[in-house]
Amino acid sequence: MTHNLENHIEEMAGKPRTPDQLRQEIKARIGRLQAAANHGLWAMALFIAISTCALGDFSFFPSLPDEFQAMLGKPPSFNMISGALVLYSFSAIILILSRMMGGSGEGSPFPHVLYLTAFYGFYHFAKGLDENFWAVFAAGITVLGLESYRIWTHCNDEIRKEQERLIELERKRAFWSDDEPR
Amino acid sequence: MPKSFSARAIVPVALAITGFVVVCCLLLYSVMKRDMTRDAVQHATNLADTIVKSTRYAMLKSDRETVGNIIRNIGDQQGVEHVRIFNKKGLVMFSAASDELNHFVDKKAEGCIGCHSGPEPITTLGKMDQARQFKNEKGRKVLAITAPVYNEPACYTAPCHVHNASQKVLGTLDIGLSQEPLQKTLITMGERMAVFTLMILALTIGGVAALLRRSVFVPLELLRSYAAELRNGNLETSPPPCEGELKEVTGTLQQMSRELRESRSRRE
Predict the structure, then answer these.
(1) Cα B45-B49-B55 angle, rounded to 5 deg
(2) Transmembrane ranges (chain A) (predicted)?
(3) Which residues of A touch B8 (CB under 8 A)?
(4) Rounded distance, CA B126 to CA A174, Å?
(5) How far is CA A132 from CA A138, B65, B255, in A?
(6) Which residues from A are below 8 Å from B23, CB to CB?
(7) pLDDT tens digits for range B4-63
(8) ipTM here
């Protein structure tokens, strides 16, 4: 999603640039970070849209042909799906908290939307979605809420650092332009 | 973006703990509800089997009065919403409700359509498949069980009977039990789980918040006030009592203020 600041500085240090080029690069990077900060909200909106379909037991969509359902085989038991959901929620929360602790900007919220949709699908085929909908929904809101918060705080921290760099650049530019002979 | 240190520290912890506990409670409630429903179905199935076995001898003897009496007595029991025996054509032969007698059951009714949706009704069902859950005409939730009365050698060899050996099912016992006790138990269980969840959340989040406040936020606030005093030129302020890493920061600030004071006195 985003490069960290150290990589960015190394990248910049490797290539000599004019102050204008640097400013443009920092501004572009701020724009990318601002866009990335909203990824969590987009993922949350997508998940809520999928959950709305799941609330009606996917009745909007045509049911799968019997041959295809037979090919898929017997769905896993409720206990197995519920156990997997608990395991997934726990590991996802731990992963997000560890990334938050390490200040890492890695990871995207969209794979979580895919995993949660898969849980809706499993419960749907096991004919238990009406009983377990709220559990998947609560897991989704928790995981995506935490992931969105992590991405948002990380991007805002990075934007603040970039803005400080931009201010520093402007200050140096003003200093050198004052020294130029008139 | 939350600027305060306390908000940044507590929000993710509170969200993670609340979410995970809620997910676990919802899944636990769902599992317990399924287990309790399965037990209720098992109980109703056993009851239906008992009725079929109790009426077997009277049916073999074609003693309609005794069968009707048994069915009426069972129907008078508290929690029994309906009990009836109908023949293969769906004609109610015995029922606790006298107005149902000699009437055909509605195969398209909510409790019957499950087996009668196709051109041929399903004749062999597992224990859980025999159970239907629906609301009856009185608006009560009912768990109904159908137990087929299968044709046995004793039935088609009896001199008084007309069944032939090829007939698989002679009739069906249909008993409906009120789900009110089960629903009440589930509601009570849900409420207790909600209270338990809230207590866990209050204890966990409150505990984390209290510990963070005591160990981090209050010493930080004292340190911030101390730094503000120094910035305002009040170099005689005594440093706050801090422990650990914050004590090192306090020491550094104190050292800087001491050097500043000495430097000022030298200049004067």
Answers:
(1) 145
(2) 41-60, 80-97, 109-126, 132-152
(3) 153
(4) 84
(5) 10, 48, 61
(6) 85-86, 89, 135, 138-139, 142
(7) 777 778 888 888 999 999 999 999 999 999 899 999 999 888 988 888 888 888 887 778
(8) 0.77
